[in-house]
């Protein structure tokens, strides 16, 4: 039973808004890397917006999320304002992490974003811990961890799944299967299907075959969330999706590791275009309204870039703050 | 005052912390059955009530043998409202969770711009000198000292263990407490009332004027014994226990060396990049003009730990080795 007829129009439009934010934010970030405004590297979620937003929209305020190196979509999907995120990518004082995290380490506790991670699989048990605290404190909240098909081969995932299952923690393990760990095709380094591994830990495993359909993701994750809230424990959700761009911005790989036909097929399944068409066909919005929505988000992204570029650099002293919660002698650090 | 063992003091601190704050939980391998004696009255388990009976299974939990998930989950739980104590039993097991210690516990507060507090305590025990072989004998506290963001404790007595453990639970930062198993059974008078010992405050175990002897963890009692021996030779030793290695009370050590002009440091860890090496460097930087003799370290060699008692017994600092070092720097 799909949620399509039941969801409020505003909820559907919010899904499109968040997907557009991710798309346009990442397109803008990509340009800013190219022009030298963003130092270091970034990994875009372009092409994976439905998978991110469908999952995040299934949560509610108070829930927690941990992410990974493909790191901008998750906080945006959770509802984080764009300005401090872009300022963080540029390394400014107004960044969501004061300029100390950067693209790979975005976190916005205000929206339940406990942090992205540059180490593959490393933040998975952080979400498990958020589920543990919910259970011990008797708080009605769940936690989701996003990880890729690459991280699905990290041992820490299986330790985490086992622990979450044994303790019936309210967790959603969400595998963003975009088919490639950098240049390595997932099927060449993965035994069996990732989703089937859930059975080994006594938890349900559900695969969303069309991860470009935001409502398909939303429906599946909503069910997993409901199960977690009922105290029935974790669920593994594997979402099949595709990244439209290279692994990271500026990366040049001379070997064509992606099959051309496969690529064309996935590129034709643009989650934002698909959902726009669907909303119009469902009579939830007119073409004009969707155009207007596009323009609003484009302006939001334009504004966030301006905010980031016009913000001051962090003061040098900021580099020496926040190591510990209490005062410490700087000479012990230097 | 009551007389308590070092391990008993750790257990008492855990009980007090559990009673004081519902957010405190204990997770680890075999904590429910109180295998190591820190989660209940070890002998009268059924009668006087162990931690499971007292606090319930929601707050005392056996974990699977999954150090990485256990440590990571504790970090995540600490970031979202709990104050977990993780019992990792052997210090050598910390390596299984290295990514979580280094990349999550130590970095999250800093790299997220201070958004997260991480009030979590990681207990582990250094089973050295007990013929447990190379996999169980590690004293890795100095490895963890090199990771900014972690607080590192190495109590050397029952009273310190109890007060430091309470402060560790109250700290909003990740704390690793390294217990010296050779000291677990050692007794000391411990105040009956609850108390906390602040981090970064060394304990001067003995005042003296001729040589400063810093003793770390299990080497501290040996340093005190060495001071007794030297007193018979008319050498006055000032014995200092740093108690916490991060933060380190370098000021007390430097001040002492300025008074005595000599320094011997004893610790059970490896020589290279050990706590003794760091303290030596600090004193060399800050008190070199006052030094009347080279600084000497008494440590374990940079060698893996052999199993045979015949081989292992020579490895760690002993009273005799510390005495010999003191004699050397004092020219006696």
Number of helices in the DSSP assignment of chain A:
13
The CATH homologous superfamily of chain A is called Thiamin diphosphate (ThDP)-binding fold, Pyr/PP domains
Pick out the low-confidence regions of chain A. none
Largest sheet of chain B: 7 strands, mixed
CATH domain class of the largest domain in chain B: Alpha Beta
First-to-last CA distance of chain B: 40 Å
Number of DSSP-assigned strands of chain B:
14
Indicate the overall shape of chain A.
globular
Q: So, CATH architecture of chain A?
A: 3-Layer(aba) Sandwich
CATH class of chain A: Alpha Beta
Overall number of structural domains of chain A: 1
Helix content of chain B: 25-40%
Intertermini distance of chain A: 60 Å
Radius of gyration of chain B using CA atoms only: 20 Å
Residue runs with pLDDT of under 50 for 5 or more positions of chain B: none
